[in-house]
Design brief:
Elements (H helix, E strand, L loop, with lengths): L1 H4 L10 H5 L2 H11 L9 H4 L2 H7 L18 E6 L5 E6 L12 H16 L4 H12 L8 H7 L5
Antiparallel strand pairs: 1-2
Helix pairs in contact: 3-5, 7-8
């Protein structure tokens, strides 16, 4: 994982494909707003000087894993300006079978993706897509999924 995301923050203009696999960038976003979403990969956000300042202070180091391709365990340690050290560790990644998203979290992520993809939230369309997927095995016209994904309510 270190080889995949351990790259340093690149100077502006930061490219989205680089940023998605740059733990210092993603970590700076998470530290400043508590989560990371699609809107954090827009040109304005990618080149925010504050995010770059914070990212430049994040170092990715290899832990004592024995398998180079292992994604877990992971830990993060932050040394605060007042000298305190905060640390968190995870044994399973969120969204994996071992630690699945709740339905509520899954749907919130889906709705955020729809809003980003369509340029704004559209609860009616989102609800229709959710209903169609929830009833996937009973659908008589799977073309409905394609129409809804294209933004066509029918």
């Amino acid at each position: 994982i270190h080889h995949l995301v351990g790259r340093p923050i690149a100077p502006a203009p930061l490219e989205v494909n680089y940023a998605r696999l740059c733990l210092p960038y993603v970590g700076a976003i998470a530290l400043t707003k508590g989560d990371v979403g699609l809107t954090d990969f827009t040109p304005d956000r990618l080149n925010d000087p504050l995010i770059h300042q914070i990212a430049a202070r994040i170092e990715v180091v290899v832990n004592d894993v024995t398998e180079a391709s292992a994604f877990v365990p992971q830990s993060a340690r932050a040394r605060l300006k007042d000298g305190r050290v905060l640390e968190v560790s995870i044994e399973q990644l969120l969204g994996t079978p071992q630690r699945p998203l709740s339905r509520e979290a899954h749907l919130a992520k889906f709705r955020a993706c729809c809003a980003f993809g369509f340029g704004q939230a559209n609860p009616v369309l989102e609800d229709a897509l959710i209903e169609a997927v929830d009833q996937l095995t009973e659908l008589t016209d799977v073309g409905l999924l394609g129409r809804l994904a294209a933004g066509i309510l029918s």
